[in-house]
Amino acid sequence: MSTPFRHTVPPSPKKAEGRVAEAYAQIAHDFGTAAPPTFVVLSSAPELMLSAWALLRESLIAGPGDRTGKEVAAFGVSLANRCPFCVSAHTVLLHATGDHALAERLARGERPEDEGHARVLDWAARTRVPGAGPEPLPFARAELPGYLGTALAFHFVNRFASALLTDDLLPAGAQRLRPVRSLTGRSLARAVRRTAVPGASLPLLEAPGEGLREGPAWAAGTAVGPAYDALRTAALEGGVLLGEDERRLVQEGVAAWEGAHPPVILRGYPHRRELPGARLALLAALAPYRITGDDVAAWRGEGRTDGQLVRLVAYGAFLAVERIEAALHFSPHPARHI
């Protein structure tokens, strides 16, 4: 039986308990799919699954801004990051919004007819390049938490999806067929078009007796901020799987990154025989689709678990997200809505 997972065998969603089971129920209701591989693959590290779901939900699903526009943004980020799984997913989700013509134009590699959607697509693709100029915004400034939260969520999702999932959204690559894309999207339409209440995922993140922090200034006053902060905290904890020198090497590599994809011959990356953990984390940040079975095998050795692999990939992935987020500089006054 084929599986969408690479390098890991995640726990069965049917055996989930506690907050993970609550998250799956919320995902089924708000996302429209009971156990999407993007969250199942993180379930070996529950703190990552819960916080990644929270950021996606509070930005893409419940955050400010038009759902179709945010799906275009997620598509643009996924295309820029070369994540076929996520590109296919957002094509299907655009069908679910009811904009079938837009979904198929994007599937054919064409520019949206609507100029507003075209500007969102361009803006989203530019977010891959740290400091590439986030303004002027192609949406109202009040919608920034929804749109930027969506973009940053998928800079994270794209990376672990490329590393740990196959390219195929549906079995046997059925998402390549237009009727299948349309039909699958229609099956999700009720969930996608339903109004979601902001903040419903945040109780999944709270530790007993502890509150959640507000998060970054661009998300202030919305549920996107605490969700982003929770994911940041959970993902960066994965750095403990590396030695101090390895962490420094990875952090320096990401800090020097300017958004380019690496050449075919990987030069300057740690060798898998010498520093396999640093190699995996740096590839997860900058070129997750280049992670191979040999890379994973070299690091795992005896006793390395699926949960540790997920945490290491998430660590590298979020370093890239943080590099992008830290390079954003918005003017103190609302940007012109073009």
Structural account:
The protein is an all-alpha fold and 338 residues long. Mean pLDDT is 93; it is low at 333-338. It is globular and about 50 Å long. It contains 14 helices and no strands. The protein has helices at 18-30, 37-40, 46-61, 67-80, 84-97, 100-107, 115-126, 144-164, 178-193, 224-236, 244-255, 276-286, 293-300, 306-326.
Based on CA inertia axes, which overall geometry fits? globular
Q: Find the count of extended strands (DSSP E, 2+ residues).
A: 0
Order of helices and strands: HHHHHHHHHHHHHH
Beta content? under 5%
Report the structural category: mainly alpha
List segments where confidence is low: pLDDT < 50 over at least 5 consecutive residues: 333-338
Helix content: 40-55%
The end-to-end span amounts to 49 Å
Mean pLDDT, rounded to whole units?
93
Number of helices: 14
CA-atom Rg in angstroms: 19 Å
User: How is the biggest beta sheet arranged?
Assistant: none
In short:
With 338 residues, the chain is mainly α.
Secondary structure elements and pairings:
Blueprint: H1 18-30, H2 37-40, H3 46-61, H4 67-80, H5 84-97, H6 100-107, H7 115-126, H8 144-164, H9 178-193, H10 224-236, H11 244-255, H12 276-286, H13 293-300, H14 306-326
Features:
338 residues, mainly alpha, 14 helices
